[in-house]
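EI: anyone free to look at a 361-residue chain?
SC: sure, send it
EI:
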Amino acid sequence: MMFDLPDSQTCYATFFEDAAAARGHLWVGVTSTGIFCRPGCPARRPKPENCRWFGTIHDCLDAGFRPCKRCRPTEPQGADPLVARLSRAVEDAPDRRWTEGDVSALGIDPSTARRAFRRALGMTFLDYARMRRLQAGFRELERGARVIDAQLEAGFDSGSGFRSAFARLLGLPPDALTRTSADALLRADWIDTDLGPMIAVADDHSLHLLEFADRPALPRELARLHKAVKGRLGLGRTAPIDQAEAELNAYLSGQSARFATPLTYHGTPFTRTVWDALREIPAGQTLSYAALAKRIGRPQATRAVARANGANQIAVLIPCHRVIGSDGSLTGYGGGLWRKERLIDLERAYGAGHLEQSEAV
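SC: here you go
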């Protein structure tokens, strides 16, 4: 489901008078300052004639607006306070080359920062800072820039360093994605959410992958898709990516638990059965791995169900976060346990509401 923006007067009134209704649906770009904000921003209200209205963060960035430093529209929320503080420092200086000495200068022990980021995101703080720099390079490549220009935008002096860092994050060097963009069967793009950046891959008809950009398994998953389409994986947007972004924003803002983005599965018949069963778990409820195994008629396959759950490569829309340990513990989650906890907390507000099933092919 896509969300059509109302007229400018309605957008202005909703954004500034009813932030709850606008959250997840509406962002404002202020032409006089060049920044964009989320609903509820404490900054001074701009004049109506200086406002441009957008339905996604991606559209704001594409239009050339910078994230507001007061409301932090692209900043992950719900993380450990130390993770949030250092994430904010990265957003304040996106092309800075962070070192452990820089962390110490903030009065933070580098080893403490390292542990906090590994616990929350599965990567170190320095890896996270490098990822955000790479996002700037990704955007340049998507716009058709040369690799060297994307490298400089990302703050890398060395071309080999940029290619190596890009390949570590995405599993492929930048050239592998840019040279096939004209005739790509699949396209990859970056989605910013309240839980952090995600990578989406889709064709013109359905979504094939949706993962948090810091998930360790992402490079392997992208490389697998690249091989499946014989290298015809490029950069850019398709309608299913736009639809998934709009539905994610509505879901994370508490507006709607409905997902209708068409999905394409990449897995064995057994894993597909497990993923279908995951999508039948109502928002606001959880199941143990053993209970899920019984639900699909394979009560002895608890471990296989757990492996299929971990192999899910469409986060949130296939809600593997709703599966917990038999003792009620959250257990593992590829996107980080803090995200799993926040998703489960968020869904309590949806009660017994069900996510509508997307068509999987």
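EI: Strands lie at 27-30, 35-37, 51-54, 66-67, 186-191, 198-202, 207-212, 233-235, 287-288, 323-324.
SC: 👍
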